[in-house]
Amino acid sequence: MRSYADGQSMLSIDPNLAIGLVQTFLSVLQVKISLRPAPAHTEQTILVFNGIKEKLSSSNFEDAGAVIEEHVKAELPQEVASSVLADFNTLAMMAQPLHVEAFDYWNLLLNLTRSARDFCHRSNIFRLRGIGWTVGHRLLKMPKTSAALFDAATQQSWMGLRFPDSGRPGPTVGTELYLIEDVGFTPQLPYPYRAQPDAFLPVIGNTKATYWEHGHGGYGGQPPPDSEPLDIFTLPGSDLHWVWFISGKDAEVCQIRWQRMLTAPEVQKIVESLKQDISGYVAEIIGEQQLGESSLWPSFTELIAQLSTRG
Question: pTM score, two decimals?
Answer without folding.
Answer: 0.80
